[in-house]
Specification:
The protein has about 140 residues and is of the alpha+beta class. It has a single domain, classed as Immunoglobulin-like. It has a seven-stranded antiparallel beta sheet, with helices on one face. It starts with a helix and ends with a helix. It contains three helices and seven strands, in the order αββαβββββα.
Length: about 140
């Protein structure tokens, strides 16, 4: 009986410890397809993409930098209560696939940037290192 009680206590303890460990951070996702082009435009507001692009990236190095920035951005708790986005990003895939529309708030040097899918209110933050790469791509053009 004592062994059964001890065994039950241990199972319960392990379950509690496992349940208390933090879940992995939720990150942005893109289609598992080849990206053909990244288009950047000045944003006109939430929920839509400004089709009047001022930058276009189709070289592998730039696309890889945007892909890394987007897929490593970590979801923040709650919904957005922030100002109008600065930029709109359209991720265009090869073939006849729909594009991903993403809003971008470009952070200051050594600060985090923020992304948001155009169809959602969740905010995803990048690292300051990613902001440096995004700033060099967007502001140096």
């Amino acid at each position: 009986m004592k062994a059964l009680l001890l065994c039950t206590f241990m199972v319960f303890s392990f379950a509690m410890i496992a349940g208390c460990q933090s879940a992995p951070a939720e990150k942005m996702v893109l289609l598992d397809e080849k990206i053909n082009e990244i288009k950047v435009s000045k944003s006109e507001g939430f929920g839509e993409i400004n089709e009047d692009k001022f930058l276009s990236f189709n070289d592998r190095k730039s696309i890889a930098a945007f892909e890394e920035a987007i897929t490593t951005a970590v979801k923040q708790p709650g919904n957005a209560d922030i100002s109008k986005p600065e930029y709109d990003i359209a991720v265009e895939y090869k073939g006849d696939l729909p594009s991903h529309g993403i809003h971008l708030w470009l952070g200051e040097e050594n600060k985090k940037s923020a992304f948001m899918y155009i169809t959602d209110e969740s905010v995803y933050l990048t690292s300051p290192e990613v902001t440096i790469k995004l700033r060099s791509l967007i502001l140096s053009q």
